[in-house]
Amino acid sequence: MGHIYLIRHGQASFGAEDYDQLSPLGHRQSERLGQYLAERSQRLNLTWDAVLTGSLRRHEQTWAGLAKGAGWTHEPTVWPGLNEYDSAALLRALPLDRELEDPHTPGGYKQHFRLLRDALTQWMAGTISPQGMPSYQGFVDGITGALAHIRQQHPQGNVLVVSSGGPIATLVGHVLRTPPETTIELNMQLRNTSVTELMATSHHARLVSFNTLPHLDDAEHTGWVTHA
Q1: How far apart (Å, rounded) are the C-alpha atoms in residues 64 and 59?
Q2: Phi, psi dihedral angles at 122 (to 5 degrees)
């Protein structure tokens, strides 16, 4: 039986013109996780059979931080199906009766995620079709395709996957057969550089742990825990 470790990217640039790049803290989170994984691998005599990442910049930067912290030289397989949905496109697809508030303010932050939940619900149901995005089923197919690839190619191996909150929550929801509403809530709970573990064979996959932060579980790193 193989093990798949799903890593959410480090803190990105929420509210900035270009969200798709890590913040300084996001880089530190990624390096710290790499250090932890290297220590754990050495302690348990683990080897990594493959690394998959999405094609977004924050995925690439998170992997670079992991590799730097761990001293790894693995060449990752880039899998675009692991990319996040476009939250801006989802919000633009909603019929809004007022302008969006500044997401850096408490009210704007709450409004952003309230509307995002609404947009995700409608996209999943096929009520809206955000410009430039696949259907929800197409999004799911891209993510489950990565799982099928891993199960076929590495049924007994350890595989590291660097992705985003939406794909990770969708994959967990697929494994647990959760309804769309639960998948959305799983998505909203995922923390930056969190680790979610699956056990998999060529025929099935099971959830072992979800949204853990073992690399930040001490007083020194308490302020490093972020969600956006």
Answers
A1: 9
A2: -70, -35
Q: From CA 184, how far away is CA 182, in angstroms rounded? A: 5
Handedness of CA 98, 99, 100, 105 (dihedral sign): negative
Q: Rounded distance, CA 137 to CA 156, Å? A: 29
Question: Which residues pair with residue 207 across a beta bridge?
Answer: 198
135 token code pair: 């259907």
In the predicted model, is pLDDT for residue 170 greater than 90? yes
Domains and CATH numbers, the chain: 2-84+135-224 (3.40.50.1240), 86-132 (no CATH)
CB 97, CB 91: distance < 8 Å:
no
Number of helices (H) and strands (E) in the chain: give both, helices first: 7, 6
Alpha helical stretches, state H, 7-135: 24-44, 57-70, 87-92, 106-125
Sign of CA dihedral 168, 76, 40, 219: negative
- Under DSSP, the state recorded for 103 is T
Q: Which amino acid is at 192?
A: N
Residue 41 in contact with residue 221, Cβ under 8 Å? no
DSSP bridge partners of 161: 6, 52
Model confidence pLDDT, tens digit, residues 51-99: 999 999 999 999 999 999 999 999 999 999 999 999 999 999 998 766 7
Which stretches within 94-201 are classed as H helix?
Answer: 106-125, 136-153, 165-176, 180-189
Phi, psi angles (nearest 5°) of residue 88: -65, -40
3-state helix, strand, coil in the chain (%, to 5): 50, 15, 35
